[in-house]
Amino acid sequence: MARRPLPRISNLPSIASLPSTATARIARGRQIARTAADGATDVLHPLITITRGLRKLAGAGRSKWAATPKERRGPALFVVAACVLAVALVPYGPLLALVTVMGAAAWHGRERPVVKTGPDEAETERLRALYEALVPYFSAPDDPSPLFTHGGDWTKALGDFAFDGDGRPTRLRITYPAYFTDGEPECRARIEQLVHAKSGRGREYLFDWDEEGNQLLVRVLPALSTSVAAQRFVTAPGETVLGFTDPEAVQRTVPVLDGDESRDAPAVVWRTGPRSTEPHLLAVGQPGSGTTTLLRSIALQALQHGDVLVVDGSGTGEYACLAGRTGVLAVECGLTGALSSLEWAAHETERRLIAANRARQAGHPAPEDTRRPLWILLDRPGVFGHLAAADGRTDPQALLQVPLRHGRAAQVTVVVAEQFDSLDTLSEAVWAHTRARVVLGAATPEQVRCVLDAAPHTTPTPHVPPGRGYARLGTGPVFRLQVPATPDPYDDATTEAQRRAVLDLLPERPPPPVPLDAPPVPPTPPAAPAPSDAPAPPAAPALSVAPTPPAAPAPSVAPTSAPAPTGAPADAALAALPEAQSAPAQGAPEARPAPAFVVTAYGPPTGPAPTTPAPATASAPAPALPTTSASASASAPSPDH
Known about the structure:
The radius of gyration is 46 Å and the shape is elongated. Helix content is 32%, strand content 16%. It has 15 helices and 17 strands. The protein starts with 19 loop residues before the first helix and ends in a 7-residue tail after the last strand. β3 (205-210) and β4 form a beta hairpin. Strands 10-9-11-12-8-13-14-15 form an eight-stranded mixed beta sheet, sandwiched between helices. It has helices at 20-43, 45-67, 70-89, 93-108, 121-134, 185-199, 291-302, 335-361, 368-371, 381-391, 401-406, 428-433, 445-452, 496-505, 568-576, and strands at 158-163, 169-175, 205-210, 215-220, 239-244, 253-258, 261-271, 281-285, 307-312, 328-332, 374-379, 412-419, 436-440, 468-473, 479-482, 597-601, 630-634. By secondary structure, the chain is of the alpha/beta class.
């Protein structure tokens, strides 16, 4: 029986071949149908939601009934029937039950936002590219079932991933074969560099190697806050806050003031003192990386409980704000001053050791002056080394051997800051005894490993703010570090808030001491003559000295009516004069007290000494005073003068 062929679609009339009136009617019908459907959807939306919810509730009940063991189905059915009977007997029970069921159906049938359960096409392509790049490192020719193969299934090796808004991974877990040598730093570095390049540069990644589970967790770390300025940190004596790090890196937090709000920040705390295993610190960085800021922050914290000696090799005046402050022994910027200060520090360390040893042998506690911490801050010692070598003098680092070796027992702490281009100038003693290390600024992994003796678990970024780097205390882990903002308050580029924060932490400057050899006080002009009816000064009895002509007064005696100069030099000189100066000569009768007058010493007289004989009641010779001018007060001789 022959079959009739089906009509060809091309033979059917198309919409374009229809008349214009028919086309308009079809378009109008479609629009009406679409409008009716939208209206019906809006009207019937509650019913659709409840129906969808009832379907989900029915499916859940069916799944629950299927999961119930057969021996428990009878009691479960009896309990359900009892509940239905109780609801039916309660007044308004069926109505309340119906409302409850409808409400539950409406809740389960509501429209929920679509949850993304997997990567999209662009993210899948990025993960596949990373998988293909890891094949040469995580595969072996003799592996019977390789986990990484070209064109293989990447979902078995890459998991627990998350992406940011730009489609770059922010979290990724990589499972690698057990024969990969994850204990070698070189092999780890190659994998970290590859993942960093394929996941997107410009961000800082943390690589957490799980050698036991053969897994590598890669996470993108947020940037450390740079808004924490210098302030009083809540620490015990002997503790110094170097900076702040990630919350999961340390177990201790310190309350800080970040802007206008207070929060707890995870801090890297460096402990010094007799029981410290890292008594000295070495900070290395590039120019402008923040090593001077770190030393300034340490100095402000050390001045709370100790004394500070600053030796600045850069000579830029970055520590001028510390000069003359209470507790700051010196701020040296020249080679001669640096050598003198470091030589004194070496002798002071030896003196403290000897004093403490003698006190322990005698069964006494250590003297108070040996327990006060002494901090030696040395910035750019390589500059002084070049100057000392050119002048044939001692290298300042040679004077640091005693404080570095014995400083822990003597409460002496040494902090050295140097740049990468001058690391070869550091002495062996500095490298051997500075077990606390800090690297600031942009640095390659090789440079970080050279200073810290360990590679960081994060990838360094090419552009970092000042004070950003890594820290390692002894043999501990490597921390990310952000030094508190402690700029030079005398710098014009410093903001007013940061300048005020640093100035508030600086101790006050003590009043300048007035030495005994202060410059002489210029003589005051004679006052107006006394009135004629003024009583004459009482004469001392039993005196037989001829009166002295009034035209030949003593050159160092001021007029009686001149006021006495006031000030610290006169007071100091008055306290230095012995009481014997005002005693009468031996064998002479006791004189009546006469009005006091002021003697101002101006140095040796330029002319010949006067030939006027001294009075018989002259006081005993005074002890020798400093060669420079001073002011003194003594008892007056007889009125004949």
